[in-house]
Specification:
Blueprint (H helix, E strand, L loop, with lengths): L6 E5 L3 H13 L3 E5 L2 H7 L6 E5 L7 H10 L7 E6 L5 H9 L4 E4 L4 H35 L5 H16 L3 E7 L5 E8 L3 H5 L3 E3 L5 H8 L3 E3 L2 H6 L12 E7 L5 E7 L8 H61 L6 H33 L7 E4 H17 L4 E4 L7 E4 L1 H18 L5 E9 L2 E8 L30 H11 L3 E6 L5 E8 L8
Parallel strand pairs: 1-2, 1-3, 3-4, 4-5, 13-15
Antiparallel strand pairs: 6-7, 6-11, 7-8, 9-10, 10-11, 12-14, 15-16, 16-18, 17-18
């Protein structure tokens, strides 16, 4: 932050010249520090003056060298250096001074007006640059804060807080144009008395208020003086007492609105202030637009999951009838053509089981999304769990001449888990391994105890998965080979949801042609996690 009163370090080994120059600067309103040697100048520069008036001829260190050291030091490099000299005034000396990093070069003797003109111009330039940096940093800060704002309320809170802080405004508000384009509604306000906004929460677009006029004309409204305020139709509602601005914004999706700021004193805004405020207003509009799109996307996703749950539930009843009827017919198959009849019934039963598995996945997905699935965790032996998985899938692996085995555990690991859900995890992982591993391949199950957790793995000798697909492998509906659809791509996403619900971690390692390893760790102590 720059001082309210600019500070100048005056460096000169001539006592008379030092006194007179300091007196001139002090009369002009500047705070002045003094040094008569280069070493003193380098020490005092650490107090961060706005400008150093540096004589070239000094008793210990040449002024050019002092300037060079100042500019080389990150702590002092931004300080303006105006070099002066009574003897080194030729072109060569000026060039040497500027090459050493000086921002200006003034020959002595100089008139007071000339000195003050140089000092004023250089300090004004420095403050303009510093203010630009501050505004840029503030906009970057706003952008970072908006990354975490996903609702309109969060967006307006960030914008108003940042805008009020950056511009020292007293109050502010954000308004949006209604979908029918006939009215303007204040979404959020800060700093205004409640009574002053009560009657303006919703206004017709035709109202002669700064917000409505800014939106209608699509151009900012600046009220920077009492005279401008008095000429404005809504002067009576200025409860803050100073300047007011109304900054319109619009987006490519049709969102239109206004950012309003009020100040406790009358201020005239320069082009830099106005540019910053308009940038803030545009950020507000874009962030509100993203928040609205995000809300719509969430609503659509919720509707889709709700529809999936309804469809899955309604399909289950007729599917149960099909399965039950097929089982009854299978037991009472006619003697004539019995084998052919049983084969067709077997096809019906397999299709029914496949449909039931798909429906179960859809219902599980709906439960995870709704947060209604509660884990029933008890203590189990990892060795016994793996043996049960082996028994459940041995026949399926044998049909493809695959070797399904359990790697001997290094220790008797115990895990707290929902047994049925963990078996569902293994069913998906082992089922995929059997499906994609060619005949004669191997699938190995393993478990090992670690501090505070149990590590499980399913390793196969299948074709592997390319690196480009790994980041999306656990996304819902994603399939590595969508042209060969087998299911809808929910299995691995449900696996991840179950592991997450246990408070565990899940990872995959794979390379084309070298198989795949799925690894997940579950806490060995009971957790309160629930999906």
């Amino acid at each position: 932050m720059l001082r309210e009163r600019a500070c100048i370090l005056n460096v000169n080994d001539n006592p008379a010249a030092l006194y007179l120059t300091s007196l001139t600067l002090q009369r002009a309103g500047y705070e002045v520090l003094e040094a008569s040697t280069g070493d003193q100048a380098l020490r005092l520069a650490r107090e961060a003056p706005d400008l150093i008036l540096l004589d070239v001829r000094l008793p210990d260190i040449n002024g050019h060298e002092v300037c060079r050291r100042l500019k080389a030091d990150p702590n002092t490099s931004s300080i303006i250096v105006l070099q002066t000299s009574a003897s080194d005034v030729d072109g060569t000396s000026r060039t040497a001074g500027l090459e050493a990093g000086a921002d200006g070069y003034l020959a002595q003797p100089f008139e007071e007006d000339e000195l003050l003109a140089w000092v004023n111009a250089l300090i004004r330039a420095r403050r303009t640059i510093a203010a630009s940096h501050d505004r840029l940093a503030r906009l970057q800060q706003v952008t970072a804060a908006l990354c975490d704002a996903v609702t309109p309320e969060e967006v307006t809170s960030v914008i108003l807080q940042q805008g009020l802080d950056a511009l020292q405004a007293k109050a502010g508000g954000v308004a949006l144009l209604s979908d029918d384009g006939q009215s303007v509604e204040l979404m959020s306000t800060r700093g205004y008395p409640e009574h002053s906004t009560r009657g303006f929460r919703r206004q017709p677009l035709s109202a002669q208020t700064p917000i409505c006029i800014a939106i209608t004309r699509d151009e900012p409204v600046y009220l920077e003086s009492a005279r401008a305020e008095a000429e404005f139709p809504s002067a009576r509602v200025n409860t803050v007492g100073g300047s007011r601005v109304a900054l319109p914004f619009s987006t490519s999706t049709g969102l239109r609105g206004c950012l309003a700021l009020s100040f406790s004193e009358w201020r005239v805004f320069d082009k830099h202030d106005r540019g910053f405020m308009m940038a803030l207003s545009r950020q507000c509009g874009q962030a509100l637009d993203r928040a609205r799109l995000y809300a719509e996307a969430r609503a659509l996703a919720h509707s889709r999951e709700e529809l999936l749950a309804i469809v899955a539930h309604d399909l289950r009843n007729p599917l149960t009838t099909v399965t039950t009827s097929a089982s009854l017919l299978h037991r009472n198959a006619p003697t004539a053509d019995g084998e052919k009849f049983r084969a067709r019934l077997g096809s019906i039963e397999r299709a029914a089981r496949q449909m039931n598995h798909l429906i179960q996945d859809l219902l599980d997905l709906a439960r995870f999304q709704a947060g209604t699935l509660v884990l029933r965790q008890t203590e189990h032996s990892a060795r016994e769990l793996l043996q049960e998985v082996l028994d459940n899938h041995a026949l399926q692996a044998a049909q493809k001449s695959q070797r399904l085995s359990v790697e001997p555990a290094l220790s008797e690991a115990l895990v707290r888990c929902d047994r049925d859900r963990l078996l569902q995890v293994f069913s998906n992982l082992v089922g995929n391994a059997i499906k994609f591993t060619p005949e004669g391949g191997q699938i190995v199950l393993a478990a090992a105890s670690q501090p505070g957790s149990v590590m499980f793995s399913v390793r196969d000798t299948g074709p592997g998965i390319s690196a480009e697909h790994l980041p999306r492998l656990f996304h819902r509906y994603f399939q590595v080979e969508p042209t060969h659809r087998n299911g809808v791509g929910l299995g691995l996403s449900i696996v991840k949801a179950i592991i997450d619900a246990h408070g565990g971690t899940l990872s995959v390692e794979s390379q084309p042609g070298q198989g795949t390893v799925f690894t997940f760790a579950l806490p060995s102590e009971l957790t309160s996690a629930a999906a």
